[in-house]
């Protein structure tokens, strides 16, 4: 029903089912993972009115499991990318995996998927830093490039009193670049 993908690794398409409505993927060497993709395989849809909460679990310094809500997948949103690299120092949140006796290894984290009602999914608040930017990469690149251009051009700014006449140079007022 679910798959999990980490860049540079094989796709995991067989989660461990730990309860009737709960599934877990192991993520060995999780310290070297930045993003994880969770997706539905397309073979079995969620039952009507159901979806899956996606959680990230890692062992804290004392070896206890810390669970953090990343987001969700549904029949209408069958895949999601989550940034997990900044979550390893945060604190846990409420989760449906608490009563389970899942083994925790110091170098292995887990992705947990809990099948729940869509109304419950809408009321949950994921960890803010897990969301991947919704701005496409070209737009983000363009914005950063133009900010960099403005900062570079501004570093050469001089006042009118500092200007020396030079017929071979053209000067563009900084407010023209800002208006553009």
From TrEMBL:
InterPro entries: Hikeshi-like_C (IPR048364), Hikeshi-like_N (IPR008493), OPI10 (IPR031318). The keyword Nucleus applies. GO terms for biological process: cellular response to heat; protein import into nucleus. It comes from Pachyramphus minor. Forms an asymmetric homodimer; required for binding and nuclear import of HSP70 proteins. Interacts with ATP-bound HSP70 proteins. Signal peptide: none annotated. Acts as a specific nuclear import carrier for HSP70 proteins following heat-shock stress: acts by mediating the nucleoporin-dependent translocation of ATP-bound HSP70 proteins into the nucleus. HSP70 proteins import is required to protect cells from heat shock damages. Does not translocate ADP-bound HSP70 proteins into the nucleus. Its main location: cytoplasm. It is found in: Cytoplasm; Cytoplasm, Cytosol; Nucleus. GO terms for molecular function: Hsp70 protein binding; nuclear import signal receptor activity. Residues 6-130 form the Hikeshi-like N-terminal domain. Residues 136-180 form the Hikeshi-like C-terminal domain. Keywords: Cytoplasm, Nucleus, Protein transport, Transport. GO terms for cellular component: cytosol; nucleus. This is Protein Hikeshi. Belongs to the OPI10 family.
